[in-house]
Design goal:
Chain B: GO terms for molecular function: translation initiation factor activity. Chain B: Component of the eukaryotic translation initiation factor 3 (eIF-3) complex. The structure holds 2 protein chains of 2 kinds. By secondary structure, chain A is mainly alpha-helical. A 3-stranded antiparallel β-sheet of chain A has the order 1-3-2. Chain B has a 3-stranded antiparallel β-sheet with strand order 1-5-4. Chain B has a two-stranded antiparallel ribbon with strand order 2-3. By secondary structure, chain B is mainly alpha-helical. The chains are: A mainly alpha, B mainly alpha.
Amino acid sequence: MPSFDNAEDRPEHITNILNGLDRYNPETTSIFQDYVSQQCEYGTYDCYANLALLKLYQFNPHLARDETITNILVKSLTVFPSTDFSLCCHLLPPSLLTTTPASSTGDLHEAVQKLTTLNTQLESCQFKDFWNTLDSDDLYADLIADVSGFEDTIRKRIAVVTNSSIREITREMLEGWLNLSDDEFDTFVKDTAGFSIEGNTVIVPLNKDNEARPTITRESVKFDQFSRVIRRAYEQPA
Amino acid sequence: MLARQAQYQNGTNEDDDFDDDGMLAASIVEAIQNEDDDPSQTLHSLHSREDDLQSRLQAAATPLEYQASLEARYASYDNYCSLFHFILNSNGPVELDLPTYYWAWDVIDEFIYQFNNFCAYRNRLAKKGQNHDEIASLKDNQQIWGCYSVLNRSQMNEQLAAIKRGEDPNTVAGEYGSRPLYRMLGYFSIIGLLRVHCLLGDFTLALKTLDDIELNKKAVFARVMGAHFTTYYYVGFCYMMMGRYSDAIKAFSHILLYVARTKNFHNKSAQFDSISKTMDQMYALLAICVALCPTRLDDTIHSSLREKYADQFQKLQRGGPESLPVFEELFQASAPKFISPIPPDFDNPANNVDPMQHHLQVFLSGVKNNMMAPVLRSYLKLYTSMDLHKLAAFLEVDAEDLRTKLLVFKQRSRQCKWSEGGLLSGEAVNASDLDFALNNDLIHISEARVGRKLVDWYLRNLTRSYA
């Protein structure tokens, strides 16, 4: 069963820190930072450990590294529609999220604001706008540069959303959602997402989620419920 | 409160046994004093001279008034430090019988309350920007009531709890584990940790700390009403902040139902006032959760919810932009008093954002996304299939806009739901009774219904015919 505090590829030394008193030890900051860069590089993801790092930053603001903070936020975008991004936001210094920038935190403030915009667009499923925003400013390119395969991961997540709500969709629309066209689109849709293309329509195979079958929950009757009736039948033979 | 103090006194009357320990404690207090350059030193040394263990035990569980001065707050912090230090760092376990179960809970409760209160006080000062003496003194004493030391205190207790866990239940209890003092303190400090983490905004870690505690009516904490109640409040709140509304609803309704049923036993106890206040808060949170994730509630709870928050609940359920201020209002009234983990920036008051506002904004950004949901729901419930453009015309929105709204609706109705194991684990399930799929521009809608319940009816009539 999936559990939030587990991550498949978590190395043992990280597990030890997370479970021990060392998770409050400012000296572990650098270990967690390395772990974040490792996640960015190899495309793994460990929200629970990242939250622990943000917490260390929370207590020791002087240790905080802007780059790591933005990397964590970018990573948490790659698992939308889960709430990881907002869980991270709860642990950020409040001044980063207000609309009027505080003087001392200019750059980071702007970066966080921009990432929040991206998150809002993803969460409201405005995928086309998301890609447009991403292309609109060089700063975005800088922000996602460290996270390898960012765009592909997002595409996969969009495919998951599609998979769960859609049976058929026009090619044109899905192209917009995925920001792909022509051969690239064909390959992604067929090989990665597992959809099929017929003419101008993309067909999503039926699955548990897009089937939308009416269900009726019936009551489950347990023998125990009848125990009194049956006992009674023995006690007072009719 | 007086009555409870008397309890402690009556509960422990072996003063003779304590002489040695009392002296030990006093010397520790002195040691701490020498380390800390503390403005309240004079006050403190006065204390330690006449102080014996008993009075300190009582002091620890006695609430500090809201208006207390800064010195009193420092002093009380030192008091806790020395007490915890004494209990945990003495050679071998301290020979001490717990006055009551309540005592351990009260100590932890009060400790965290004072911590919370201190942070709020600190923020208020920074905002007002007056009273420079106190600010200066706060600047010099950032260690006091620092988050680190608070967490460490609680953490130490957690280590003890680990010892306890290893040898539970009682059979092979070790040196520490067999003492009720350590067992209860350890137990309640875990719940304390849940609170502190939640107040700091780390909701996942908060739930994680409860991994080793079983949540049910027979759990140890159920014996102390306040603890039982607080635990569920915070668990429910953490779930809500994680977007796991169905789990939050479960936690809230469980405890509200429990209180509703046992009300007659509790309404005479001293804790009842604070409990009924928290109960109102939980109803408000429950209203938020149900609005975000429509669920059938237990009848008792549903009717009291409508009794308390009729207007607000209706507005929430109607959705749309008008519901946003109501979400805000209820959240502010019923969320725990969040604290900021670091001392405020005394030099730039503009940089200090109220932590409550911070968490509120993050929470609302999630709510805003799905504000259309109740309206969509009410329409979708009427059809089994429908054209996207037709629905868009009904709602007077753009068809593409509607399509994204539908996608959001679908994503939001799939939630992580707990079934077994640690509180953080769970599986993604469809939490809504409404499901749909898009076939190009055609929306196929299906509804999950609950079949008629016949067994109850049958059994009831059967008993009647027997009689």
